Amino acid sequence: MQLDLATLPAPKLDPLESLLARHPTGPLANLVEHDAPPADAALEAFPASLAHAETKRAHFDLRGYARTRNHLEGGVSRLSPYVTWGVYTPRELLDDVASRHGRHDKDLAKFTSEIGWKAYFREGFRALGARVYRSLEPYKYPRAEDEPGLPPGIETAETGLDCIDTLVATLLDTGYLHNHGRMWLAAWWVHYARHAWQDGEAFLYRHLLDGEPGPNALSWQWVASTYAGKPYAFNVENMHRFGLNGCDGTSFDATYDELDARFFAGHREGGYARRGHDHPSTVPGPPRPDLLRPPTTAPMVVLHAERLSTRAHVLLEHPDAPVAVYLDARRLERERPSRKRLAFAVRLAADLVTHLRDEGRAADLFLLEDEAELAHHARALTRDGFVAPDSWHPGTWNTLGRLDTHAPVAVTPDAPLAEVQADLRSFSSYWRKAEGQVTRRLGSLFS
Ligand SMILES: Cc1cc2nc3c(=O)[nH]c(=O)nc-3n(C[C@H](O)[C@H](O)[C@H](O)COP(=O)(O)OP(=O)(O)OC[C@H]3O[C@@H](n4cnc5c(N)ncnc54)[C@H](O)[C@@H]3O)c2cc1C
Q: What domains can be seen in the chain, in order of their start residue?
């Protein structure tokens, strides 16, 4: 379905009512959570526009990052929603931030390794696909049956635990949670409330503006210990230290030894179960190498959900080509995003289209149900093929593969953070191979 973008509200306001008025039936109507409140608070915190992303990026000051980033009020960038939807690749963001920072120091080293985590998890998703949703290894401590369903009260931030409710209320309101907040929420969910990590993963993903399969599912598995050597645990003292109150006197207001006896069957004492030898490694090359080929003479540019950006190399290579921006309605129907996540994605994609039109391009936005729709659109504009950026999502490669049966698709990759063959058993096994490549390049930015 092609979306009519005339007179959308500003990027800080929920666009869905206005779009639904023009498209009362079809995929959009099926996707919107009609009983959820408008996404204005999330879009106020994370305006869905390229200009706002640029302002946020330009104002991000790396000084103090290494020292403060674990604190809820610390100096993190809050740029991840824009990275997830491809306004910036991890490499572009790192290079921009590093150039402005202007020197190698511990703040830049820490930021570089955090960007490295994103690349590591994306490699993990490329290697594992839907297997990221199944425990990759056994738990490293003796664990009773999961409690059924979701933790009571979680969906309305009314669990009765003030610290957890504060985190969940922030998530429900803004679609963002600080990394430490995500770690506490996940560890509480899995180890203390004893619910399945998979349900926590799905809950968080639905609400996060930056929700991404690799980083989210593999972080949950890391916390749970099904993709790590030991479970991640925290106590109330740790929460206090990094800026969260409200859980004094709870079962996890305890020393680590007490937590171990209470929740991990005293396992810390006797050591954790060892990790197995079966683990993923990076997959060389794209899923469809046949699509890395020269473009046709008059292609249309296709921008997908992993690259909602004017920086995509294909745009620079084809400055006069019309552009089709699409979000995949079939994927969205499977994922059932929260209203704010959907509003953010649709408004960001619409903003990109507006931006391209302002630059004088023909550009349109599709909520794609069938590749034939794009093929038809391209034919109507007398285009003989498609050019697209690459993607970390195997589903997008499948879409491009199906599009290719209608007219030739040529993929032009954007420069990756690093290109290495690495074991993905742990971040350090990946980073050992990738770090040198990344820091050498950063060095050349300063020389
Ligand atoms: C349970 C759990 C679930 C998570 N789910 C997601 C998710 O769905 N999507 C997602 O992008 N990240 C996820 N993370 C990682 C991390 O919490 C977020 O990337 C980070 O909070 C983003 O905020 P920021 O942009 O302010 O980070 P900054 O500290 O400013 O970092 C800059 C960039 O580096 C990347 N980054 C930073 N930390 C991490 C990390 N630990 N892992 C991966 N990338 C990182 C992000 O792209 C971020 O934009 C999850 C972490 C946990 C513990």
A: 46-131+420-446 (no CATH), 137-270 (1.10.579.10), 289-412 (3.40.50.620)
